[in-house]
Design a protein that fits this description.
The protein is α+β, with helices and mostly antiparallel strands and 113 residues long. It is built from two helices and six strands. The protein has a single domain, classed as hypothetical protein PF0899 fold, CATH 3.30.2320.80. Strand 3 and strand 4 form a beta hairpin.
Length: 113
C-alpha cells in the first residue's frame, strides 16, 4: 500500500512547515489529488490518521480536493477530459493522449495555531 508512504511524506512536509512557522499544532491539512494519480483516497485518510497520532498534526482535519483529469490529444490537438490514464480521446478515438492535469498530489494548505 503506497498510501502509507504518501501519508508519511505529507506529514513530513506539514511538520517541517509547522515547525518553521513556530506552530503548536496543525488544525487542517488540505490536499489536492488528481483523479489520475492512482491514490486510493480512503486508504490515504486511514494512513494519515495513523501516522499523525503522535505528531503536531494529531487530530488534524484532512480535506481532500479532487482535481479532474485532462489531457492533450496529439492527433486532433484538443484538450480533453480524461477519466483514466491511457484512455482514448473522446473526440477522435486516438490513444495518443498526454495527461496535462489530474496526475498530481500536493499539499495545498495547512492551517496551524
Amino acid at each position: 500500500m503506497h498510501e502509507m508512504s504518501l501519508a508519511e511524506g505529507v506529514l513530513q512536509l506539514v511538520e517541517d512547515t509547522a515547525r518553521r512557522e513556530g506552530a503548536r499544532r496543525v488544525k487542517t491539512v488540505v490536499l489536492e489529488i488528481g483523479t489520475l494519480a492512482s491514490v486510493e483516497v480512503e486508504a490515504l485518510r486511514f494512513c494519515f490518521d495513523a501516522v499523525t497520532r503522535t505528531s503536531l498534526a494529531a487530530g488534524a482535519a484532512l480535506e481532500i480536493r479532487t482535481v479532474p483529469g485532462a489531457g492533450w490529444c496529439l492527433p486532433c490537438g484538443a484538450t480533453v477530459p480524461m477519466v483514466e490514464l491511457y484512455g482514448a480521446c473522446p473526440r477522435c478515438g486516438s490513444y495518443q493522449v498526454q495527461p496535462t492535469a489530474g496526475t498530481e498530489m500536493r499539499v495545498k494548505e495547512i492551517e496551524i495555531e
